[in-house]
Amino acid sequence: xxxxxxxxxxxxxxxxxxxxxxxxxxxxxxxxxxxxxxxxxxxxxxxxxxxxxxxxxxxxxxxxxxxxxxxxxxxxxxxxxxxxxxxxxxxxxxxxxxxxxxxxxxxxxxxxxxxxxxxxxxxxxxxxxxxxxxxxxxxxxxxxxxxxxxxxxxxxxxxxxxxxxxxxxxxxxxxxxxxxxxxxxxxxxxxxxxxxxxxxxxxxxxxxxxxxxxxxxxxxxxxxxxxxxxxxxxxxxxxxxxxxxxxxxxxxxxxxxxxxxxxxxxxxxxxxxxxxxxxxxxxxxxxxxxxxxxxxxxxxxxxxxxxxxxxxxxxxxxxxxx
Length: 322
Description:
single chain; 6-stranded parallel β-sheet; 6-stranded antiparallel beta barrel; elongated
């Protein structure tokens, strides 16, 4: 899969494609339906499938500092997901003031016509674009008739009568509804990152942790979870099970949100490894403790609860704990 950063990096070889436009945060079942429809057209027309996305997201650009919605996926995670669904190219447009002020007409001409020569375009039923959201489906269809490309409106995708959206996935994660989030995503929720050196406090109380920087402005999850870790070296039995805290670490006056994972029955160095952490069940909220002794006692209880959960899942034959 090819990543193209910015309109200025488009080349003549990039002209002629089927495309869709959006943030694709989470690459949930609704997104997957769009990509499936596009893949069929790409095969039929013999053209590459292109996803046009924005970095940062428009919501992040316009939101006051610290008030943007949490991302479900980092940019790297999103690219990994899109690759799995047959996307040939991703065009990432930097969403800045010039782009936010580009007229809808200019967006169509410069991007869809001159830049990509789109032949088939799929967008969501609530899609708007251009300065002050002037552009809509009707404008796209009129442009398509003029320039020779077809515009298809992808209607709402539902699961059990509920609209699938990134917002709903965030809500499910924030309330600990991990199973519901997995239903909307089509997979269990994961976060990924590289294991880095921490402050070693966990070792002093018998709970060494793998520390993973999240590289996000806001995280959709907070609290303590039973987790499984994937992506470790081939000599490690997978998945490695454990308990994780995601938050600011108030007991040690932490100032940055990060993910800390204590793996059960695990004793080896994994610094520098790029891992994926799958969240199996929420155990409790993050909280501040008066002493490290109190913290250790609670982690003991968390670990015991997580172990019991994994044992129960294994007895029931649930694949999440296999």
